[in-house]
Amino acid sequence: MNNKQHTYAFIGAGNMSGAILGGMVNSGINPDNIIATNRTKEKQQALHQKFGIKTDLDNKSAIEQADVIILGVKPQMMLAMLTDLVEQGIDFSQKLIITVAAGLTINRYTGIIGNVRFIRCMPNTPSLVGLGVSGLFCGTDASKYSAEVIEQDKEITSVMFDAVGKTVWLKQESQIDDIAAVSGSGPAYFFLFMQRMTEKAVELGFDQETADKIVLQTALGSAQMAAQSDDSFEQLRVNVTSPGGSTAEAVKVFNEKELDSIVSSALDAAVLRAKEMSKL
Ligand SMILES: NC(=O)C1=CN([C@@H]2O[C@H](COP(=O)(O)OP(=O)(O)OC[C@H]3O[C@@H](n4cnc5c(N)ncnc54)[C@H](O)[C@@H]3O)[C@@H](O)[C@H]2O)C=CC1
Ligand SMILES: O=C(O)[C@@H]1CCC=N1
């Protein structure tokens, strides 16, 4: 299947959808086949200028032009937006619907737009540079659609998200909440750690530019090295930690302050919030 023949409408294209569609364009997908809406004219124009895609202020018109619809608004706005679109007479039955919203479970959507072909996706923003991770769950009702249609939809989705990073198909819908806590939110955790390291580097006497440079390159180098190595993350860390050396002292502080428990509690809190959001 040639995925470039599909037309994609990103409805409510903000940070996350912008990263996905930007990554798609960067990977060679024809920008003429991508249309994005945003209710804010400036944001919409910025997407057109940056990526050369088509943009529209009108969700209805964008949906009518596409066969793959990516719903990218905040969970709190999603159901009201879909209700409004159904009231405007939009028929979703011939479209593949992909939602990137955290929390909201499939039954919340089908209650409004019907029992349509449906994929839940949990991407992350490094999709913009082709290094995203997307958890995918197919929620199409197998008693209504054939196995062939479902496989085709999964293929369309895989091609789209493989173009912007790695994809992981999930067996259960609840795993979307889990992968959201790990890789969906994950960039925020790494950015937070980088921010704190940079602040400390400035406190130690480096100017901001130098602090940014050394922290960024350390993060980049560590990730690249791990990606190219057969060693576990633990072994790579051990390789840096000379017995009796300075790294060992820093690692001791992380352990004494229970970094493992901090990370575990933080991810549990993210999973819990996703489950609460499903009930909004
Ligand atoms: N930001 C992230 O790293 C990730 C976000 N997500 C999910 O992606 C979704 C969007 O998140 P962000 O992109 O961060 O939010 P965002 O606020 O940047 O993007 C949403 C955009 O939708 C626009 N919008 C709102 N209502 C609209 C309507 N009725 N018609 C047209 N445009 C409308 C807003 O102007 C906004 O620019 C959320 O549901 C979130 O759960 C999922 C994974 C990661
Ligand atoms: O913060 C959120 O709710 C979304 C889900 C994962 C990343 N951003």
Automatic annotation (TrEMBL):
<keyword id="KW-0028">Amino-acid biosynthesis</keyword>
<comment type="function">
    <text>Catalyzes the reduction of 1-pyrroline-5-carboxylate (PCA) to L-proline.</text>
</comment>
<dbReference type="Pfam" id="PF14748">
    <property type="entry name" value="P5CR_dimer"/>
</dbReference>
<feature type="binding site">
    <location>
        <position position="59"/>
    </location>
    <ligand>
        <name>NADPH</name>
    </ligand>
</feature>
<dbReference type="GO" id="GO:0005737">
    <property type="term" value="C:cytoplasm"/>
</dbReference>
<keyword id="KW-0560">Oxidoreductase</keyword>
<dbReference type="GO" id="GO:0055129">
    <property type="term" value="P:L-proline biosynthetic process"/>
</dbReference>
<dbReference type="InterPro" id="IPR008927">
    <property type="entry name" value="6-PGluconate_DH-like_C_sf"/>
</dbReference>
<protein>
    <recommendedName>
        <fullName>Pyrroline-5-carboxylate reductase</fullName>
        <ecNumber>1.5.1.2</ecNumber>
    </recommendedName>
</protein>
<keyword id="KW-0963">Cytoplasm</keyword>
<dbReference type="Pfam" id="PF03807">
    <property type="entry name" value="F420_oxidored"/>
</dbReference>
<keyword id="KW-0521">NADP</keyword>
<comment type="similarity">
    <text>Belongs to the pyrroline-5-carboxylate reductase family.</text>
</comment>
<comment type="pathway">
    <text>Amino-acid biosynthesis; L-proline biosynthesis; L-proline from L-glutamate 5-semialdehyde: step 1/1.</text>
</comment>
<dbReference type="GO" id="GO:0004735">
    <property type="term" value="F:pyrroline-5-carboxylate reductase activity"/>
</dbReference>
<feature type="domain" description="Pyrroline-5-carboxylate reductase dimerisation">
    <location>
        <begin position="173"/>
        <end position="277"/>
    </location>
</feature>
<keyword id="KW-0641">Proline biosynthesis</keyword>
<feature type="binding site">
    <location>
        <begin position="11"/>
        <end position="16"/>
    </location>
    <ligand>
        <name>NADP(+)</name>
    </ligand>
</feature>
<dbReference type="InterPro" id="IPR000304">
    <property type="entry name" value="Pyrroline-COOH_reductase"/>
</dbReference>
<dbReference type="InterPro" id="IPR053790">
    <property type="entry name" value="P5CR-like_CS"/>
</dbReference>
<dbReference type="InterPro" id="IPR036291">
    <property type="entry name" value="NAD(P)-bd_dom_sf"/>
</dbReference>
<feature type="domain" description="Pyrroline-5-carboxylate reductase catalytic N-terminal">
    <location>
        <begin position="8"/>
        <end position="103"/>
    </location>
</feature>
<dbReference type="InterPro" id="IPR029036">
    <property type="entry name" value="P5CR_dimer"/>
</dbReference>
<dbReference type="InterPro" id="IPR028939">
    <property type="entry name" value="P5C_Rdtase_cat_N"/>
</dbReference>
